[in-house]
Amino acid sequence: MTAPFTHGPLRVWSLPTGPIQENAVLIAGEQGQGFLIDPGDDAGRIAALVAGSGVTVTGILLTHAHFDHIGAVQPLREQLGVPVWLHPADRDLYALGAQSAARWNLPFTQPAPPDHDITDGQTFTAGDLTLTARHLPGHAPGHVVFVAPGVVIAGDTLFQGGIGRTDLPGGNHPQLLAGIRAQLLTLPDDTAVYPGHGPRTSVGHERRSNPFL
Questions:
Q1: What are the residue boundaries of the Metallo-beta-lactamase domain, all occurrences included (predicted)?
Q2: Which helix (H) or strand (E) segment is 74 a member of?
Q3: What percent of the chain has pLDDT over 90?
Q4: What is the pTM of this model?
């Protein structure tokens, strides 16, 4: 099983899934309760990760609704029996998941609509874990990041040495850069960044070396 990274009392698993290698993230506190974020593909592998971790998942949280981040939502929401949360500005993208995947000639299971909306500043609590959602559009209109002490689940906003694409529908380059500076670069330098693709990094490393910033 993929070993977790530890950040104080928090444990974080990042599992690359599907042909686009989107990172599904499982995060939990010391009490063993947590959230599954962006289950993009490979539902069986994600389910095995959850089972092996011993974490009780209390909800599926989505940073945004591009198809590579939502492809395993339906089977996992059914298997885990948990609600799905998404920012309302991304509901249109969510509904177009199958159509978007078809452009890449990739199989896709269109999930049923999300159960709940995410709002900027909303907190999500599972046991001793609390995540705070920060709206950070630019890659997608309803993109959010999830922040906990020492950790940010960044989706497709900030990568190791890169930033999210802004040439997709709903993208806005100045908006993304402004959001990264306001919502991510204001976090402590040692905050671990778990992106939607590629390896984890830190706020300080990206502040110092990311050529796009």
A1: 21-197
A2: helix 73-80
A3: 96
A4: 0.97
